[in-house]
Design brief:
single chain, 378 residues, alpha/beta, TIM Barrel, 5-stranded parallel beta sheet, 17 helices, globular, binds zinc ion
Length: 378
C-alpha cells in the first residue's frame, strides 16, 4: 500500500465521522476559541500504546517483505478492525496482532518501531510517550528478554533525543502466560526503573481480560510496586465493574488501561476518582473491539463529569487505524468537548504520566500556551 492510499484513507475516515455543524461565518470569537485550535499542537502525553500495535502500516509491509512473511489481507485493508466483543472477536484481533508481531524479527525492526512511534507521537503534540512492550515476544530473535528490553530502552533514549518526545517504557505481562513469568518480567522491569527517557516507569498486564485469574498476578505487581514502578494493568474494557474491583483489589493500579466500564457503576467510578486512579481511555479501540457500537457510545463524558483523570490513548493504531490526535478529535467532534475541555484532558494525560516534575511542568506550560493562542500557533 502506498503512502498516498493511507493518507487518502485517513481523510475518508474523518469524513465518515460525525462532522461539525456548518458554522455561520458571523459566529463570534468565542466560537473560534471553542473549535479552531489545531489538536496536533496541543501538548499532551500518550500513556496507552503497544509496541507492535504502534507500527505504521507501511512499516509492517516493509518488515513482512524483508522476512518473507505473508500478511493476512485484513492487515492490508484501509478500514479499521471491527469485531464483536466476544471470545471469537478477541481471537480474530489477537490472530491479526500475532501476525503483525511475527514480522518483528531482529534488533533493527525493534529499533525502527520505537523510533517511528516517537516520531509519530512528536508529530501529534505528544511530549511524553509511555510505550508498552512485552519483551518475551521478541526475546527469541535477540537472545532473551534482557537484550529485548535493552534494545527498546536504548532506542527509546535515542528517539527521545532525536524527536524531543520523551519515550519511557512500560513492561507488560500477559494474562495468557503463567503468573510466574510475570514475576520474572516484574524483576526485569524493576532493574531498569526510572522516570526519564529510556527507563522503565511501569508494569502492565494485558491480553483478554476474560482469561487468567487476576489475583495470581498480585505477586508480580507487588514486586513492581516495591521497586517504584507504576501499576498499570488493563481492566474494565471487555469486562465490567466486577472485574475492575478485582483488578483494583489485587493489583493496586495507579492507572487502569481502559477502565471505561466503570461508567456502569457510579460508586465504583467515585472510588476510582477518590483513589486517584487515572483511566487510559482509548475510544477507537473500544469501538473496534465491539465494546461500544460507535464513537457516541463511548462514555467519555460520564467519566470526565465524574472527575476522573483521563488520558486518551491510541492503543493499537496499526489495527484500529486511529492515532493519538484522532482520539482528541473524537472528543471534540463526537462528544462536543470545547478547547478548554480538551486542554483539561491533555493536562490529565500529563499529570497521570510518570514523567519527572520538570517534564510535567514544561508540558503543562505547553497546554497553557495552546489555550492562549486563538489558533494554537506557538
Ligand atoms: Zn491496550
Amino acid at each position: 500500500m502506498s503512502d498516498f492510499s493511507i493518507i487518502a484513507f485517513a481523510g475518508a475516515r474523518s469524513v465518515g465521522r460525525k462532522s461539525l455543524p456548518e458554522r455561520n461565518p458571523c459566529h463570534n470569537q468565542v466560537m473560534r476559541d471553542q473549535r479552531h485550535r489545531d489538536l496536533s499542537l496541543l501538548t499532551k502525553a500518550h500513556l496507552h500504546l503497544h509496541f507492535t500495535g504502534s507500527m505504521r502500516q507501511t512499516t509492517l509491509v516493509d518488515l513482512a517483505a524483508k522476512h518473507g512473511v505473508r500478511l493476512p489481507s485484513a492487515l492490508l485493508e484501509a478500514d479499521p478492525l471491527r469485531v464483536p466483543a466476544d471470545e471469537r472477536g478477541w481471537f480474530r484481533f489477537q490472530r491479526l496482532y500475532d501476525a503483525a508481531r511475527a514480522c518483528v524479527r531482529d534488533e533493527d525492526d525493534m529499533r525502527r518501531i520505537v523510533r517511528e512511534a516517537a516520531e509519530d507521537d512528536a508529530a501529534e503534540g505528544s511530549g511524553r510517550l509511555e510505550i508498552q512492550v512485552d519483551p518475551t515476544s521478541y526475546a527469541p530473535f535477540v537472545g532473551g528478554i534482557t537484550p529485548a528490553l535493552e534494545i527498546v530502552l536504548d532506542e527509546a533514549r535515542a528517539a527521545s533525543a532525536a524527536t524531543g518526545t520523551e519515550v519511557a517504557v512500560i513492561v507488560a505481562s500477559s494474562r495468557m502466560r503463567h503468573p510466574l513469568e510475570a514475576r520474572t518480567l516484574a524483576r526485569l522491569a524493576a532493574q531498569n526503573v526510572g522516570d526519564g527517557a529510556g527507563e522503565v516507569v511501569g508494569f502492565g498486564l494485558s491480553n483478554d481480560e476474560r482469561r487468567g485469574d487476576t489475583q495470581t498476578f498480585a505477586h508480580a505487581f507487588a514486586i513492581a510496586r516495591r521497586a517504584g514502578l507504576a501499576s498499570v494493568p488493563h481492566g474494565g474494557e471487555l469486562l465490567g465493574p466486577g472485574h475492575i474491583h478485582d483488578v483494583v483489589d489485587a493489583l493496586h493500579p495507579d492507572r487502569l488501561g481502559h477502565g471505561v466500564r466503570s461508567s456502569e457503576d457510579p460508586r465504583l467510578l467515585e472510588e476510582l476518582v477518590s483513589q486517584g486512579i487515572a483511566l487510559e481511555v482509548c475510544p477507537a479501540s473500544n469501538v473496534s473491539l465491539g465494546v461500544y457500537a460507535d464513537d457516541e457510545q463511548v462514555p467519555l463524558r460520564t467519566l470526565v463529569d465524574a472527575g476522573a483523570t483521563v488520558a486518551l490513548g491510541a492503543d493499537d493504531p496499526l489495527l484500529f487505524r486511529s492515532r493519538l490526535v484522532d482520539q482528541y478529535t473524537t472528543a471534540r467532534e463526537v462528544h462536543g468537548f470545547g478547547d478548554h475541555e480538551l486542554a483539561h484532558l491533555a493536562r490529565g494525560s500529563i499529570q497521570a504520566s510518570r514523567a519527572p516534575e520538570s517534564t510535567k511542568a514544561r508540558l503543562l506550560a505547553g497546554v497553557d500556551r495552546w489555550l492562549e493562542e486563538p489558533d494554537g500557533e506557538h
